[in-house]
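Illustration: Fatty acid hydroxylase domain-containing protein.
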Amino acid sequence: MLKGFIAGLAVANAFEWFAHKYILHGVHRPGQPRYSPVPKSMESHWAHHREVRKQEFSDDCYVEGVEHWRTRNEIMSLAVVAGVASVAFYPISKGMSLAALYSAGNYYYVHRRAHLEPDWARRTIPWHYDHHMNSNQDANWCVTRPWFDYVMGTRVVSSADLKEANPLGLPLPTALSKVLTQAIESVFPAKWVEQKPKLVAAQVEDEQQQESVA
Ligand SMILES: [Zn+2]
Ligand SMILES: [Zn+2]
Ligand SMILES: [Zn+2]
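Result:
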């Protein structure tokens, strides 16, 4: 059950990556609009991106709730995916089936809260802050945890203060977090928007700040 559940979380995270990239953003075609197999969801998602950049990461569709067509679109899409996946996984693994339901619910909780409470988002899911606010919005595809962005090389960090403590995106003890980050990033390194010298300066600054607090 637990193994299946964890495998299910990994599958759901991979799905977040693929669905966000290929369904919500669509595939770029020179001289033509982007292609998505679900054009309505793509339209809804790009409207979300425009709103978020205008409103310093807030999106009023979550204030309005199900009255807003984009909120309904997101909830319906998640319900369909969770429904199909949980039924399909059930004969193979009840843990995976449960993970599909949990992941869909968690996705909605995290994404909604992020755009209602931008400060929470910066602290808790900085990868999604980068997704919206970086000049290149075609990166940082994962929303709940950044796992597949590390695997696929699409975690693009804009600044040191928006770098998660570890690639699992989990609140872990500092020492464990550091060891884990080194181990994972030796195979799947995060990419950085800024130039190296700037980055080192920012990190030094960060450490000095931490020391002065301690
Ligand atoms: Zn997006
Ligand atoms: Zn393009
Ligand atoms: Zn968003």
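Reading the tokens back as a structure: The two ends are 43 Å apart (CA to CA).
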